[in-house]
Design goal:
The protein is an alpha+beta fold and about 450 residues long. Helix content is about 45%, strand content about 20%. The chain has helices at about 15-55, 60-80, 90-95, 100-105, 115-125, 195-210, 215-220, 225-240, 265-270, 280-285, 335-345, 365-370, 375-380, 380-400, 410-415, 420-435, 445-455, and strands at about 130-140, 140-145, 155, 170-180, 180-185, 255-260, 285-290, 295-305, 315-320, 325-330, 350-360. A hairpin with a 5-residue loop joins β2 (about 140-145) and β3.
């Protein structure tokens, strides 16, 4: 019976020892074959192979950056996969480079591969790059990978990589197996989260077509498409985050100023912007002068969100009224235009817009921010948490009926009718559950809403 530390009984070699031998031999043979590639191809030939691997990026800076990011994938590609286009390479090199360098090495006695190195090279030549999903993880030892395109599972020994992955993560890698040991022979520098899986499933469907199963040869024939998807997903994951509000507008904070004739009259004309909050509740926290006149009041601008399903009442901005002046803060140019029109119409001749400040992409501190209760304190209220739970549940219930680009424009309810769609929806929900579990303030409410979405979709 196999165990993690030993295989083949107490007198057999340990799995750890086998992995150490294989890992050392793999690095050594890769280094020797890379030296041979450099000698055979020269700098120009290596650059040609790199351009081929990267799918010919146009920008020189992009070329250099891509090499730095993907060197761990490129070197095995150069050794085990690449054959140049005859029209692109020097005629003197062309005749001796009609098959991958590693295959030439197997037939070349000068290279002098020992038996273990030959087995490594043969295994790497047999296995193409593919997308693999982490099924189970043993930190510090390895993980179980399932090839998303071919469905095969492999127990992989990997010390460092297994420390940082989670079940559901996706690797772009070449996975080889020698004796009892599975190992990575080239792997992308990033692990993709589960919600990237639908794009891989879409590629799988394209390759599969009328075939019963996808073979290694199918993956080799479609190697360009696999790398193209890997680079596209990598770009998405490494791009600077684009902050957008619930109306799907770019975050850009604005502060609008009006001159007003009367604080009390301005409140009467604008109180409808507070949504369901009653004027009595708002005025209960207002400040008044010694003779009882309204001098200062603050409330949220509540409206219907247009960018997210289920968000019917959204905080769109903050309104502060003082004697003689009115200030509104919002987080996008679109909302600034909306509130400008709404306030001008409501105030009429009793107010005059004086200025609009563009504050930038980060909120600026203001008096109303300093006086507001911290979010943690607000969320301690059972009523607030219940309302938050209702909002989450509405969002995810509506999500099941919303057309999702990652599902090919189908709604989750439509997608789960097929095996591929069901697998894609499961991956998206798994990624959402992972994100929700990391949310310190309200994981229970978010997770409960996602579980309800699973129930609605028949996935619970």
């Amino acid at each position: 019976m196999e165990n993690r530390k030993g295989v083949g009984g107490p007198n057999g070699p340990s799995l750890e020892l086998l992995y150490n031998r294989l890992s050392t031999a793999y690095e050594e043979v890769l280094g020797r074959l890379l030296e041979q590639a450099a000698e055979t191809l020269g700098e120009e030939g290596i650059s040609l192979a790199l351009a081929d691997f990267l799918l010919w990026p146009d920008d020189e800076d992009e070329f250099r950056h891509a090499y730095e990011a993907h060197a761990a994938l490129f070197v095995p590609f150069l050794i085990f996969d690449w054959t140049p286009d005859p029209d692109d390479i020097d005629p003197e090199v062309r005749a001796s480079f009609r098959e991958p360098l590693a295959r030439q090495a197997l037939a070349n006695p000068i290279v002098r591969l020992d038996p273990l190195e030959r087995r490594i090279v043969e295994a790497a030549l047999e296995e193409p790059l593919s997308f693999h999903e982490v099924i189970a993880c043993r930190p510090g030892e390895g993980f179980t990978l399932r090839d998303i395109l071919r469905g095969r599972e492999t127990e992989v020994c990997e010390r460092l990589g297994s420390e940082s992955v989670q079940p559901g993560d996706i690797l772009f890698a070449r996975v080889i197996r020698i004796e009892q040991v599975g190992m990575l022979a080239g792997c992308g520098d990033l692990f993709f989260p589960p919600d990237f899986k639908p794009q891989v499933i879409e590629l799988r469907t394209k390759i599969l077509r009328r075939r019963k199963a996808i073979t290694a040869e199918d993956l080799r024939r479609n190697a360009t498409d696999l790398r193209d998807l890997f680079f596209a997903l990598h770009e998405v994951l490494t791009a600077p985050p684009e902050l957008r509000n619930s109306d799907d507008e770019e975050i850009l904070f604005h502060r609008l100023h009006w001159e007003i004739d009367s604080a009390a009259e301005a409140f009467e004309r604008l109180k409808h912007l507070a949504g369901d909050e009653t004027p009595e509740n708002i005025l209960a926290r207002a400040e008044r002068t010694a003779d009882g006149n309204l001098s200062r009041v603050q409330f949220a601008w509540i409206g219907k969100g247009s960018g997210s399903p289920g968000l019917r009442n959204v905080v769109l901005g903050k309104i502060a009224i003082e004697e003689g002046k009115l200030r509104v803060e919002v987080n996008s140019a679109g909302r600034a235009a909306r509130i400008r029109e709404a306030v001008d119409r409501a105030l009429g001749k009793t107010g005059r817009h004086r200025a609009t400040e563009v504050l930038g992409r980060m909120p600026s501190p203001s008096a109303q921010d300093e006086e507001a209760a911290p979010p943690e304190q607000i969320l301690e209220s059972p009523e607030a948490r219940a309302e938050l739970g209702r909002l989450f549940e509405n969002y995810w219930a509506e999500w099941t009926k919303t057309k999702i680009p990652a599902l090919g424009g189908k709604t989750p309810r439509q997608a789960v009718r097929s095996a591929e769609g069901r697998e894609s929806v499961e991956a998206i929900l798994a990624s959402a559950e992972r994100d929700a579990a990391r949310t310190a303030q309200f994981p229970e409410e978010a997770l409960a809403a996602i579980r309800n979405a699973r129930r609605l979709l028949g996935l619970s």
